[in-house]
Amino acid sequence: MNILVVRNDKLGDFITALPAIYVLKKHNPDNKIIVFIAPLNKALALACGFIDEVIVDSNLGIWELVKEIRAKKIDTSVTLFSNTRVALAQFLARIPKRIAPATKIAQIFYTHRVKQRRSQVKMAEFEYNLELTKELFSDINLEYKKPLLEFEDSKKIYDVFRINNDIEKEVVCFHVGFGGSSDANWNLDEYEILIREVLKENKYQVVMTFGPDEKELYESMQDRFSDTNIVFYFSIDGLIYFAKLISNFKLFVSTSTGTYHVASLVGTPTMTFFGDSLFASSKRWKSVGDEKLQQHYMIPPTTKEDRHATEERDALFNDVKGKLITF
Fold first, then answer.
1. Nearest to 211 by CA among 253, 178, 185, 256
2. Model's pTM, two decimal places?
3. 154-326 falls under which CATH superfamily?
4. Please, what is the angle between helix 258-265 and helix 11-27, to 10°?
5. Contact, 294 vs 317, CB < 8 A?
6. Would you kindly state where each structural domain of the chain is located, as residue ranges?
7. Which letter does DSSP use for residue 292 in this model?
8. CATH 3.40.50.2000 fits 2-135, yes or no
9. Sign, CA torsion 98/149/151/9
């Protein structure tokens, strides 16, 4: 059976789709799994042994997209995140069985509409994705391996990085930038306090990582920590190299952005900061890795007038600092 799985949004969102894709392949290895994804996720998709083919959403016109989908001879599709364009394209491509959550106007183009009410956040995003696969195979086993993605050469990648940067201790990594649906983070002054507390303990090597669009932040943090032996890594070597590298780290500290999901995907312990709302919460956005390796903190919003929220934030910050010192 040729199965199309659609999740053509951001990095973290695509990673929440990977358990569902894995169990579809595991249910019957003869299933051919084809994914429809955003360009930024192509390298990651190609690195997953349970994905057979990739269709990159390059914003083609509707009929060009229909032609591309038809060429794959799809038997059924599972659309984890839908919009009118991708729904209509599947309808016009005449995919016999089209499964999607029963949301938005786009649902009219699907043959099987599943009521999930994701806005209620009764489970995590990746768990909702897993649940959709039951509409295709009622007896499917939703268990998946953890870590879900492993690389044979990750240790070699890390050894070269370690030698080039004179690293002799285990690494605690801080990724201070954020984007995507993340709406809460410590400010840079607060991060500096946390990082310097780790440095004082002299137990771990601190590495700071930055995405390819964070050059200004990268340079700013180098100036801020010019008196330290911190290793600054500006990610220009691609997502797969980054995933291999951080899979060797002792801890990955960040807000709930795409890099957090990458770290959890490859089995790295995480300390992660979430917005104090249902939409942005860890309840919705916990990642696909082993939960025992994930530490989640909900950062409350603060204003000068809201003394209680400020005190709550301060208490949380001190708790995080304590956990880092004793880690």
1. 178
2. 0.94
3. Glycogen Phosphorylase B; (3.40.50.2000)
4. 30
5. no
6. 2-135, 154-326
7. G
8. yes
9. positive
